[in-house]
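ok so I'm stuck.
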Amino acid sequence: MVDLEIDLVLAPVDGSEESQEAVEYAIAVANEYDATMHAVYVLGEDVVRAIETGAVDESEVAADTESFTEEVREHAADLDVETTTSIAYGFSTKVKTTHPGSVILDTAEDLDADFLVVPREPVSGDPGEVLEKAAEYVLLYASQPVLSV
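replied:
not stuck anymore, here's the structure
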């Protein structure tokens, strides 16, 4: 049996029900290993383009994502899991290789995450659900253990 040492669990979210479920698993893993959790809210292509063109103010987007990440923090606090959050652009109009999967892996490396919990592809196909294609990429290329839920 392999003894895992987990200090930081990364949970990418996009506001979808699937990412909320993934967060619940991430909190459980963090709680089991007495680790902290980081939830990174990955913004979708439409939102990123709207910010870059000035159609949407970045502070408005931050406020919108804050309600979701606040729920994440509150849920984690119920189990005494310390949680941090951030927002990342899941796409770039300037860098072709930037996509949700690469953003998740880059965030994991930057934060030195020990474990990742990613939502599986949602069945709805809603354009706001950014992480729908990221799970497979993360499973293929992550250097950390990954739980896909």
